[in-house]
Design a protein that fits this description.
The chain has about 220 residues and is of the alpha/beta class. It folds into two domains: about 1-120, Response regulator (Rossmann fold), CATH 3.40.50.2300; about 125-215, Orthogonal Bundle (Arc Repressor Mutant, subunit A). Helices cover about 40% and strands about 20% of the residues. It contains eight helices and eleven strands. The chain has helices spanning about 10-20, 35-40, 60-70, 85-90, 105-120, 155-165, 170-180, 190-200; strands spanning about 1-5, 25-30, 45-50, 75-80, 95-100, 125-130, 130-135, 140, 150, 205-210, 215. The strands form three sheets. Strands 2-1-3-4-5 form a five-stranded parallel β-sheet, with helices on both faces. The chain binds calcium ion. Calcium ion binds near residues 9 and 53.
């Protein structure tokens, strides 16, 4: 899942990034409202964390502009402590959830998980297909024999995305839009390499290739 983190407090950004990465997010960071508005409009994200107090353009304005342009990804706003009106204004402007600063990272992760789940129409955090299970909360993958499978960041994100979309054929482009981070070369051809590595670990039939269309989970 690809996440846009909009926050100008760099110490907060640096403290959040490792936890978010560990939770399986590919992170793009913007430290001002103008870059944030542009990125959210031009690129694909599965969720956004949006601080409201931003240089350049206030977070509330960023959110309003996105929604006016039908940019629909789930947005969690970060508000100042006790500023109840910010929460109301944010929700009215199209935010899906909010957290007041200061917050516990664990609560942020739980709320994000819920937003992503809702986006993909999933009811719980335990994904399973053909004996393979993926626990979103623990970021743990086990194979049909119950053995824990170690995956790299991108491998995990690809598997997570495929398992969140069990009935869909996903193109290489779509996959690459949801798994790469800012510093990574967004090359959709490399996706094939990762898919083959996943097949080596989970079984050849676990992921099917649909010629000219992309990938989907194999028959269960
Ligand atoms: Ca701020």
């Amino acid at each position: 899942m690809r996440l846009l983190l909009v926050e100008d407090d760099l110490s907060l950004v640096n403290s959040l990034k490792p936890a978010l990465k560990k939770a399986g997010y590919a992170i793009e960071h913007a430290d001002n409202g103008i870059d944030a508005e542009f990125l959210g409009r031009e690129e694909v994200f599965d969720a956004v964390i949006l601080d409201l107090g931003l240089p350049g353009l206030p977070g509330l304005e960023v959110l309003k502009r996105w929604r006016e342009q039908s940019v629909n990804m789930p947005v969690l706003i970060l508000t100042a402590r006790d500023a109840w009106h910010e929460k109301v204004d944010g929700l009215k402007a199209g935010a899906d959830d909010y957290l007041s600063k200061p917050f516990h990272t664990e609560e942020l992760l739980a709320r994000l998980e819920a937003l992503v789940r809702r986006k993909f129409g999933r009811a719980d955090n335990h994904l399973s297909h053909a004996g393979v299970t993926l626990d979103v909360h623990k970021q743990a993958v086990t194979n049909a024999l119950g053995k824990v499978i170690e995956l790299t960041g991108i491998e995990y994100r690809i598997l997570y995305y495929l398992m969140m979309n069990p009935d869909k054929v996903i193109s290489k482009t779509e996959l690459s839009e949801h798994v790469y981070e800012e510093e990574q070369l967004k090359d959709s051809n490399v996706i094939e390499v990762y898919i083959n590595r996943l097949r080596q670990r989970l079984g050849k039939e676990f992921i099917e290739t649909r010629r000219g269309q992309g990938y989907c989970l194999g028959e269960a």
